[in-house]
Input
Amino acid sequence: MSKHRFTIKELNTHSDQWVLMKLVADRIEDTTNPYTPFSERLRKIRNNLFDFVSENPIDQKAQKEEIDKLLKSQEEDIGN
Output
């Protein structure tokens, strides 16, 4: 059961949701009984994250640009 080791490139190019999906997948691999409520919940979370990432393909650069826009508009509001 090997843990996924994230590269700097992966962390810089993938969304937070993708990273979370990988972390949950690692935790699922560590469970010994796939039929426990915890294992089932982890699989449900992983599937929801996968659906979200598939339906909302946003790269890190676009995400950063959106955050920068929001911060800039907040700074302008504070300045007025």
In short: Residues 60-79 form the longest helix (20 residues). The mean pLDDT is 78. Helices lie at 8-13, 16-30, 37-55, 60-79.
